Amino acid sequence: MSSRVRKSRNPHRRLWVLLIVLVSIFCVIFFAARGRFQVPVTSRAVLLVLSPFQQAVSWAGDQVSGLTRNIWDIVTVYEQNKMLRNEVGQLRVQNLEASEALAENERLRALIGYKQTMTQFDLVAARVIGRESATWSRMIVINRGRKDGVDADMAVVTEKGLVGHVVEAGWNTSKVQLILDPRSSVGTIVQRAESRVAGIVQGDLDNPMMPQMVNIPKNADVVEGDVIVTSGFGGIYPKGIVVGLVSSLQNDSGGLLKVGLLEPAVDFQKLEDVMVITVSREAPPEPIRPPVQTPGTETDPAAQAAEAKAAAADEGGQP
Questions:
Q1: Exposed (0-12), middle (13-18) or buried (19+): which is 195, by Cβ within 10 Å?
Q2: 204 falls within a domain
């Protein structure tokens, strides 16, 4: 039944399709030849009849042209957007590289300024290339070794203060023990002229980022805010290198001594570049000399020697 209905409808559909094709061909031929001759008055009726078809064709052409322009604009915008995103990515990378280079330049400039100031030291610049995971706040690795003149027991500093000392020197790398390590021991002294109290700075297990100054007498003149520098005792750390500031003071467990908690001069969380002191030409301490004494007193060695000599002569002259 359905096949018969389809067959009965097919002739009408074919007829309409043929009519549309013929009208289209006529329109194309008519509009193509329109400008070549003048249309007689009698053909105005034909123009009136074909006007809707002309408008439809013009509208369809405009739509196709507009769609083509839109598609082309979309493609162009997409390509431009892609290029701009690539340029933005490249500019971001360049900006990051420039910022990193600027920060490194500032750090190296500070190190160079310190090197020019501390003429009594021979300094080798080094970069921190690693930290031991088990002792992150106690040990670092630098990219300088024996081939650069670095050896064990050499002090390591920055322009701000003391970092630690080399405990193991390889050919081109070295391990540095930080002053935050509880195994570290730094002879120090209060920089204030009225105090000059000596003590030892070592790391604290309970507070890994803040070392402590121990062996301070209970009545010693040490107050919060005092600057602590190396004393030069021990042979590893030269005298006068800043270690940190006294943050707080408390009595030790025995009650006979005080312990000072220090805020390090160096920010160990941001430690990237350091310098190794390979040679120190600081002047040795002056020898201890007895004070000048008045001749003829008992504490004058020359007077004592003369008196002893005179007494011996008197004894020898007696019968």
A1: middle
A2: yes
pLDDT for position 167: 94
Q: Look at the chain and report how many structural domains it folds into.
A: 1
CB 242 within 8 A of CB 265: yes
- Using alpha carbons only, how large is the chain's radius of gyration in Å? 48
Cα distances (Å, whole numbers) of residue 99 to 92, 95, 102, 268: 10, 6, 5, 21
* CATH number of 129's domain: 2.40.10.340
**Residue 101 token pair:** 């280079």
Asked if the model's pLDDT at residue 316 lies above 60, the reply is no
Contact yes or no for 230/243 (Cβ under 8 A): yes
Confidence at residue 2, expressed as pLDDT on a 0 to 100 scale: 46
Determine the pLDDT at residue 294. Answer: 56
- Is residue 183 within 8 A of residue 175, CB to CB? The reply is no
Structural domain contains residue 203: yes
- The pLDDT of residue 289 is above 60: no
| Cα gap 65→75, rounded to integer Å | 15
With respect to residue 51, please indicate whether it lies within any of the assigned structural domains. Answer: no
Rounded Cα distance, 313 and 163, in Å: 64
For residue 156, what are the domain limits? 121-280
CA gap 266, 211 in Å, rounded: 12
Return d(Cα 228, Cα 314) in angstroms, integer: 59
Burial of 160 (0-12, 13-18, 19+ CB in 10 A): middle
Under DSSP, is residue 51 helix (H, G, I), strand (E, B) or coil? helix
pTM metric for this prediction: 0.59
pLDDT in tens, 125-169: 999 999 876 666 689 999 999 999 999 999 999 989 999 999 999
**Structure confidence by residue, pLDDT tens digits, 66-92:** 777 777 878 788 888 888 888 888 888
Is 128 domain-assigned? Answer: yes
